[in-house]
Amino acid sequence: PIVPIFTEFRRMEAVCNCWAKTCWNFPLHLKWEVQFGNTLTALVGYLHGAHYLPYDRLSSIFSQILGISVSEGSIENLLERTYKRTKPFLPEILRIIKTGFWVGSDETWDRVSGKNFWRWVWQNPLGSYFHFDKRRSYDVVSENFGEDYKGTVVHDCYWAQNNTVAGAHQHCHPHYLREL
Question: Most buried among 61, 90, 98, 165, by the most CB within 10 A?
């Protein structure tokens, strides 16, 4: 069984004979009454980012499997926390991906805060780089992936992907099969 680990902190308060109140402060890293640790935060990021689970299904999974209540608002906060922590590493992730012989690239529409966006991805066995944008144009490729890749870009036949500066291009075989 998967069993969550809970840590409870109690705050002691005392009043002396002179009516002065003394109270112990919580550790500085505790900012709210209920907090989720790094393991749960990473699991939320993984299930949402790699498996595309929406907030309501994540909340349901945590309730049914772990027996803990995690609201959709808390899930959004955890994902924002993950983004803030990982943002400084994004250029390094992209650099590592671009050392590979090939990079798969795709864009697909997604909903962000109730609005249509495009989820762009550049990935290979070395890593995955995601970018959400309102635009579906070559400018997104140029601004995020750059124009200095020497390997092969594998993609569908979308014009922004076709124009990606790279050593070579390979169209995605399943897209050919669909057209056949």
Answer: 98
Q: Which residue blocks in 87-129 are alpha helix, DSSP H?
A: 90-97
Write the DSSP string, 32-91.
SSS---HHHHHHHHHHHHTT---HHHHHHHIIIII-----HHHHHHHHHHHHHHHGGGHH
Residue with tokens 């109730």: 114
- Over the chain (180 residues), the average pLDDT of each successive run of 10 is 70 83 71 72 88 90 89 90 90 95 92 86 93 93 94 90 92 81
- Residue 121: phi, psi to the nearest 5? -140, 140
Q: What is the DSSP letter of 126?
A: T
CB 132 within 8 A of CB 119: yes
